[in-house]
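User: Working on a comparison across species. This one is Coiled-coil domain containing protein 136 from Dissostichus eleginoides. Can you predict its structure so I can line it up against the others?
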Amino acid sequence: MDSFRLPPVIEEVLDASDELCEMKETRPIMSQVFQLMMELADSREVSQRQEENALELQGLLEEERLASAHQAESFTRQIQRLQGGASEAQGRDSDNKDLSGKVEKLQRDTCDEDVYLAVSDCEQVKADAYITLSESADRKQEDRPSEDPEKICSSEINAVKIQLRQAEETALKVQTQCGGLRSDLQDLQRLYDGNRRLEFGVAAVAVVAILVLVVPSFSRA
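Assistant: Here's the predicted structure for Coiled-coil domain containing protein 136 from Dissostichus eleginoides:
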């Protein structure tokens, strides 16, 4: 016996109804798939942006690391130069103390009473010599008025001339020594002043370097 078959029109209607039911059943699933695809696209976009930000941040960190390394190297060189300058300043300070002692000694020497007394004695010798010459001539004339005054005073004149020459030589030596001491004093004073200026310059450079290099580091910290 043949199986029962519906008319073709009814079969087509039933097939259309089945397809419609299937579409109604798959529509929520397709909607969920579409939603998941949209979320996946958003996630990929966010992930790409985060990756780009991470690369940019990594580049900035690398630049900061290099800058910090250069700054540390520069700071180390500055410290080494300052340490060398400090050592040199200490050496110069010792030299300054020696120079200061020499300056004080020369000041005492230039103001020594013996120098002034020697000059005064030389001047006094000159004056005494002229007085002695005059008194000797007068006395010889009174004692032997009948004799020639030039013959009477010739020996005294020669003696006085010798005394005058010796006094002049002594005065010249003292003046030369005083001039040399004053010149040495001026040279030492100039050297002392130059060393002091250099020492102050090194101290100023050290302060500026600390302000430039150390303070910004503390600010970043």
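For your comparison, note: The mean pLDDT is 68.

User: Helpful, thanks.
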